[in-house]
Amino acid sequence: MDKITIIGAGNVGAHAAVSAATLELGHIILLDKDADLAKGKALDITQSMAVSHSDIMVSGTGNYEDTADSDIVVITAGVPRKPGMSRDDLLDINADILESIVSQVVKYSPECILIVVTNPITTMVQLAYKVSGFSKERVIGMAGILDGARFKHFIAQELNVGASEVMTMVIGDHGALMVPLKDHCQVNGQPIAELLSHQKIENIVSRVQHGGSEIVNLLKTGSAYFAPGLAVIKMVKSILRNEKKTLPCAVYLEGEYSTKGLFVGVPVVLGRQGVEKIVDIHLSEKEAIAFKSSVEHIRERTEGLLEKRAK
Ligand code: APR
Known about the structure:
Blueprint: E1 3-7, H1 11-22, E2 27-31, H2 35-51, E3 58-61, E4 72-75, H3 91-108, E5 113-116, H4 121-132, E6 139-142, H5 144-159, E7 166-167, E8 170-172, E9 178-180, E10 186-187, E11 190-191, H6 198-209, H7 211-219, H8 226-240, E12 245-254, E13 260-271, E14 274-278, H9 285-310
Parallel strand pairs: 1-2, 1-4, 2-3, 4-5, 5-6
Antiparallel strand pairs: 6-12, 7-10, 8-9, 10-11, 12-13, 13-14
Helix pairs in contact: 1-2, 1-8, 3-4, 4-9, 5-6
This protein binds adenosine-5-diphosphoribose.
């Protein structure tokens, strides 16, 4: 049976654990610096599995030895934002947390695939890559699946169709400068430009770009977790079951999309080896301009952080 470790038993981590358990993806270890929190949530989730006659076990711990030889490690530990904060405001505090966690992960699960959910994701995943020394195929950030789901939901709501009818792709950063690919968005094969006015599309794109803040402002404490928790498990499933799904994820680019030496959200094929292929889609002129700004923003933030930590 595959072993999945989820680090951080807060809102996102616990929901990811529920999602992985429901899909019966493997034995799940939930680790938190607050061991009792992890143990309590693990018991509750395992008992919920007994309600549905599933044998899946979730074990809670504060000890990295229990995570040894995991196939996949998902990092959700970190501080979420509060109203008025951007994901970038979490940079230094979450970088400290991430660095300490990654060294433990590498020690106990040197062969694992590492998925980072902690924000700001595109920068945190690059830090994880550097600290782990893993190959680029084994370090991945969760970003575009969540943003793509938000895009789907808003289009579906506007057109009064099911979300499953809508095809979306969101690339670049996970933040206000993310790039929802409007020119690639289709409903049952029909481009959205044929279904919605320019203004309506622009309003939806802006709502997607600020989709996280909309939820932060409503919740008042903490940020979204149902959709992020499930989104990361979609990645875990594609990897462990070798589904080879094409999903937008933050991966290390070495020239693809005219970008070098940086983690950026782009469509990739996820299978048992991790990132098995970077899918090159042709961007329209406007999409390419927006992608370039997004990459510049990620580069500035990521290189700034890495330089600061090298001192
Ligand atoms: N080691 C282990 N666990 C830690 C550590 C650490 N060094 N530091 C913090 N944690 C745990 C906390 O104890 C807490 O249980 O991480 C958990 C975070 O949970 P929440 O505060 O509920 O935050 P959550 O909403 O889950 O978001 C976590 O994911 O989506 C991102 O922006 C979000 O960066 C944030 C992360």
